[in-house]
Amino acid sequence: MNIPDPFKTCSVCGFEWLTRESFLQDPALTVIGYQVNFEALKLGFFMFNHTCKNTLSVRAEAFWDLYAGPIYKDRATGGEQCPGYCLFEDEFSPCPAQCECAFVREILQVIKNWAK
Asked: How far apart are the C-alpha atoms of 89 and 28, rounded to whole Å?
């Protein structure tokens, strides 16, 4: 019998979340931000605090399918339309720019508002 790997395991207390859904639904977790990787957006991290006092990181690509809207081709970072949200890990606001990074901000909203 092949037992699948858990979605995430806490490195401090050892708690395992078997699925992404159980991870997002867990009231013991709080999303605290997003750490961008401008070279490869899928390699950025969503950051979560666990009640055991650990901070967990999950690669952004684990949540990619939570967004079904437009993805822009060009990055607006540093331009006139850019509010600079990606530069601050704890900024949760949706990005108004037509930027390739903007959809990650929408995923952050989905995660933040997931029913616990």
From this structure: 20
